[in-house]
Design goal:
The complex is a heterodimer of chains A (about 280) and B (about 300). Chain A is α/β, with parallel strands linked by helices. In chain A, about 35% of the residues lie in helices and about 10% in strands. With about 300 residues, chain B is α/β, with parallel strands linked by helices. Chain B has two domains: about 150 residues, Thiamin diphosphate (ThDP)-binding fold, Pyr/PP domains (Rossmann fold, 3-Layer(aba) Sandwich), CATH 3.40.50.970; about 130 residues, Rossmann fold. Classes of the chains: A alpha/beta (about 280), B alpha/beta (about 300).
């Protein structure tokens, strides 16, 4: 992808967040998780991934696997903005005649594999990364994991195998928004010290502010360095990022707002502090 | 050199660069392959979920992965990975389950895969190959491994009791002998006992038909229906729970075609078998050829003459 300026990246991320918010009505979507990783996805597609709508089947492309899955509105928005499919198609969200539902699937151009059942795509990514190496390719596999998803044993099993196979072309990016469905991760099944755990499992681990593009440049700059196994990037993020009225709240996981509420949230996204709704005004459905 | 599963795999992998051999640290039948195949052999360790997910990833890249583990662990530990990562997209991954059914011998119920056929055939897209013995396995192996669908292969290394038909067709049973009184349907490791029981019954003057089903999904509907219509007693023999395997398949098939039949199910009715060496398992569980023949014969002779 072409390299966008920081201002362009911010604009792109704001447009993607707007798409995400517009999907949080008429049935709703997993709003909080989608907003926490919107900057990450925009950054990856704009700055890191060697992918484009013109080479969807190119075996030399980079792969992005969205493992947690329920954050797919952010991926839909990013792919649409970057021309993988028309932006107008986002209006088909949840319509039976199209394929934009609550979890990703391969009918959408740019979506590499389906997910939604947590803890699957690290092992699928291991298979892709192994074949790339076996075929002599230089492309990379990025697996975006939720932090709550790290409860799954298959993640830790996969990390052991990825290190055993020496898959340096595998990158795991953790959307560390500190929430799982209904609870704070540290209050339910604590993950910290997460960097030490990942290091102990054989990753080269770095922690970064997942909303700071300049900081992400530094973290992903490590891609060029040799390492014996996967690179793990812990991206510290905020659930619901971009909408102060819903940020970092356990009850803002799946949201289905009224059109009026969506209009207010979109004004809030654009920086209109008057538009901010109180939690009493925003009904959790 | 006598063909083995290992040499057959070696030949196929040499012919088709898409084929890859994987195992979750079950190497009993493929010990020589790591040295020969190099990086096209992957042992993931005791990690059944990663084995399946990795196989799906390899298949996405155009490979044809053949994944090995003990049948009980292969089909149950990562069941949802099989269903989600292989079943939903219908990726061409081949799952080879070792020591299924009675072949787990003295391991005990943890290792007894007696629901593997039920589980694997319950997943859309997945197909099921249950060869009668090693020779039958090797006859079907090339076609099954190169087939674009995902498959579960119920591995067996029991020696053949007869020379099988070399023609292998997916969804086509092997007709061993034809008869009008009794129709015996069998798959997998109990083929030998079913065959010997059939010979005993025929020697006793009964007209017995024997079908080796080979693939249970797709099943040879025409041959099974023909057997049900032609004979007076249909017997299913399987080292599997009675639920979800061949007896269930027969019931589904008969109902769908509005056919009724007198049936005898020889299977494990909702319990695990007594762990022991194979010959003792067969005897204790009433699965020796003469025991099976006696059950069939007494059932047949109890049919009221009308």
């Amino acid at each position: 992808m072409s390299s966008l300026s920081p201002a362009d990246l911010h604009d792109l991320a704001r447009r993607v967040r707007g798409h995400v918010i517009r999907m949080a009505t008429g049935g709703g979507c997993f709003l909080g998780a989608s907003l926490s990783c919107a900057d990450l996805l925009v950054y990856l597609y704009a700055r890191v991934l060697r992918v484009s709508p013109l080479r969807l089947q190119d075996p030399a492309r980079d792969y992005l696997l969205l493992s947690k899955g329920h954050d797919v509105p952010a991926l839909y928005g990013t792919l649409a903005e970057l021309g993988f499919f028309p932006v107008g198609r986002l209006r088909h969200h949840l319509r039976p005649e199209d394929a934009l539902y609550w979890h990703p699937n391969r009918k959408l151009p740019g979506v590499e594999f389906h997910s939604g059942s947590l803890g699957h795509l690290l092992s699928v990514g291991i298979g892709i990364a192994y074949d790339i190496r076996l075929s002599g390719g230089h492309n990379r596999v990025f697996v975006l994991l939720g932090d709550g998803e790290l409860n799954e044993g298959s993640i830790w099993e996969g990390l052991l195998v990825a290190r055993a196979l020496g898959l340096a072309n595998l990158v795991i990016v953790i959307d560390r928004n500190e929430f799982q469905a209904n609870a704070r991760t540290e209050a339910l099944v604590p993950l910290e010290p997460l960097d030490a755990k990942l290091d102990a499992f054989g990753c080269r681990t770095v922690t970064v502010d997942g909303h700071d593009f300049a900081a992400l440049d530094g973290a992903f700059g490590l891609l060029a360095e040799p390492r014996p196994g996967p690179l793990a990037i812990i991206a510290r993020t905020v659930r619901g990022k971009g909408l102060p009225s819903i940020e970092a709240r356990a009850d803002r996981w799946f949201c289905n707002f009224s059109p009026t509420e969506i209009a207010a949230l979109l004004r809030e996204l654009e920086g209109d502090s008057q538009a901010r709704l109180t939690s009493e005004e925003l009904v959790v459905r | 050199m006598t063909a083995t599963y290992e040499t057959a795999l070696q030949t196929l992998v040499a012919q088709d660069p898409r084929l890859m051999i994987l195992t979750a640290e079950n190497r009993a039948a493929i010990r020589g392959l790591p040295q020969i195949l190099g990086p096209r052999f992957v042992d993931t360790g005791i990690t059944e979920q990663t084995l399946i997910g990795m196989s799906a990833g390899l298949a996405l890249r155009g490979r044809l992965p053949v994944a090995h583990a003990l049948a009980a662990f292969l089909t149950m530990r990562p069941f949802e990975f099989i269903r989600t990562d292989i079943g939903i997209p219908g990726l061409p991954v081949k799952l080879v389950g070792a020591v299924p059914g009675i072949l787990s011998e003295a391991n005990g119920p943890t290792h007894q895969a007696l629901e593997d056929v039920a589980l694997m055939r319950g997943i859309p897209h997945l197909r099921v190959f249950c060869p009668a013995d090693l020779e039958d396995l090797l006859i079907g192996l090339p076609e099954v491994l190169l087939n674009p669908a995902p498959w579960y292969i119920r591995y067996t290394d029991r020696p053949a009791v007869l020379r099988h038909d070399r023609r292998f067709e997916i969804g086509k049973a092997e007709m061993i002998c034809e008869g009008q009184d009794i129709g015996v349907l069998v798959y997998g490791a109990l083929f030998r006992e079913a065959y010997e029981a059939t010979m005993r019954l025929r020697e006793a003057g009964l007209s017995v038909q024997l079908l080796n089903l080979r693939t249970l999904k797709p099943i040879d509907e025409a041959a099974v229906l023909e057997t049900a219509l032609r004979t007076r007693l249909v017997v299913t023999i399987e080292d599997h729970f009675q639920t979800g395997g061949l007896f269930t398949l027969l019931a589904e098939l008969l109902l769908r075609h509005r056919v009724t039949a007198r049936t005898l199910s020889i299977a494990f009715p909702g319990r695990w078998f007594t762990p022991a060496l194979l010959s003792d398992v067969l005897r204790v569980e009433g699965l020796r050829a003469e025991q099976i023949a006696e059950r069939i014969s007494s059932t047949f002779h109890a049919i009221p003459t009308s």
